Amino acid sequence: MSQVGLGYLRLGQPLTTLSGGERQRLKLATHMGEKGGVYVLDEPTTGLHLADVEQLLSLLDRLVDTGKSVIVIEHHQAVMAHADWIIDLGPGAGHDGGRIVFEGTPAQLVEGKKTLTGKHLAQYVSAGE
Fold first, then answer.
1. Quick check: pTM over 0.85?
2. What pLDDT was estimated at residue 31?
3. 3-state secondary structure of 50
4. What is d(CA 18, CA 61) in angstroms, rounded to the nearest whole number?
5. How far apart are CA 4 and CA 52, in angstroms?
6. Taking burial as the number of CB atoms within 10 A of a residue's CB, which of 34, 51, 55, 73 is the most buried?
7. 10 Å Cβ neighbour count for 40?
8. DSSP string spanning 83-125?
């Protein structure tokens, strides 16, 4: 539980008190010992403090280092900046989206600044320098 950043949970704590990201990480913790090779996470940073995001990124790195594939659907810029590969869908949301508008590394996305995600990620990365 502590490897997925949930060491603070109490035994018997109702699932209804957990955020979506916490529930996903709880499920991840239960499956980490299995032989499965692909993990798909949808917004796992929801409700997380920045320090917890860093811990989650470290966990995902460890999974990849052991030969697992990790696919993350995420809007959190720290996660995007940390990714090995990004597939950006757009050009907008809802009916205006759904097409691949970029595919490549975070550095390529930031360099091009051709998509809304690329522009925002470039601002995030430059603010951290």
1. no
2. 80
3. helix
4. 24
5. 9
6. 55
7. 10
8. -S-EEEEESSSGGG--EEEEEE-HHHHHHH--SHHHHHHHHHH
**CA gap 125, 39 in Å, rounded:** 26
Q: What is the pLDDT of residue 108?
A: 97
| DSSP bridge partners of 28 | none
Per-domain boundaries in the chain:
2-127
To 5 degrees, how large is the angle CA 78–CA 49–CA 70?
Answer: 50
Residue 32: its pLDDT value, please?
80
Q: Specify the CATH number of the domain 2-127.
A: 3.40.50.300
Residues of the chain with pLDDT under 50: none
